[in-house]
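Table S2 (text version). Query chain:
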Amino acid sequence: MMTFNNPKKEKGFSLLEVLITVFILSIGLLGLAGLQTTSLKNNHSAQHRTSAIILSYDIVDRMRLNKNVSYSLALGDNPAGGSLKDQDLVDWTTDLANSLPSGDGSVVIVGDIVTVTVQWDDSRATEGSSTQSFSMSTQL
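Corresponding structure-token output:
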């Protein structure tokens, strides 16, 4: 003998399944949005670090072309144009300011060892300390 289920007892069961599925799907999509936001922040920070590296090598290359002159520069200094060295430093600090948020740099020369430091504000990508820096040392 066959028994049939009472249709009144099963009403709304598929609606509950759809509601649970939509809830789980929305949590997953929120997680993906969070991952996308984190990825964008990290990519932006990596772009700034790449610019800092390129600009560091730029001033070192300029110094190698003009070895007889000292390119010393402190953080926050604004060099004035005039000689080739001064124009190189003006161009470099302008590139730092245009390429990096609050970009600044220094060049320290001790003997034939040059240390270039590039500093910028990375508050969009980091929590806490927002100032990032990149330093490189090389021999001329």
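Notes on Table S2: The chain has one domain: 13-139. The chain has a mean pLDDT of 88.
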